[in-house]
Amino acid sequence: MTKEEIKDLFMQGIDCSQVVTTEFAEKMQLTEEQARKVSACFGGGMMCGETCGAVTGALMVIGMVYGHSREGDQEQKDRMTAKTAEFKRLFAQKYPSCMCKELLGHDISKPGEMEKVLEKGLLFDFCPQVVADTIEILEKIL
Fold first, then answer.
1. pLDDT tens across 86-97, in order?
2. Which pTM was predicted?
3. CB 70 within 8 A of CB 80
4. Phi, psi torsion values for 67, nearest 5 degrees
5. Which of 49, 25, 44 is nearest to 135 (CA)?
6. DSSP state of 50
7. Which DSSP symbol is given to 47?
8. For residue 51, what are the β-bridge partners?
9. Can you tell me the distance from the alpha carbon of 49 to that of 103, in angstroms, rounded to the nearest whole number?
């Protein structure tokens, strides 16, 4: 998925977490609608500048693909934990933080900060790049 395609989805109201999960909906055995709904509350760092929505979306994908669901399934849990660590390591090679407010340099939970993010063009330039990089990392590790 290109940065421009991601930007277009943002302009239509689809958030970073949703873009990531939708890209891997089939791999998670979900419909596009299900992938978007389950990740809908995680854009903008859970809508308060916390963990980047692209990262939470990636963790959802890893959980759906590698997650454990049965009691005592330590082997599967170990697989999931390893994939999570690999994702975080690769993300950290590109970005100094996985916190939305640290990545943007603005705490969007505070009045006036989202306006600054928009004025600087971060939402439609920087954020799509983070999403594209996240998708690329997932494609490598899944």
1. 999 999 999 999
2. 0.96
3. no
4. -65, 150
5. 25
6. S
7. I
8. 99
9. 9
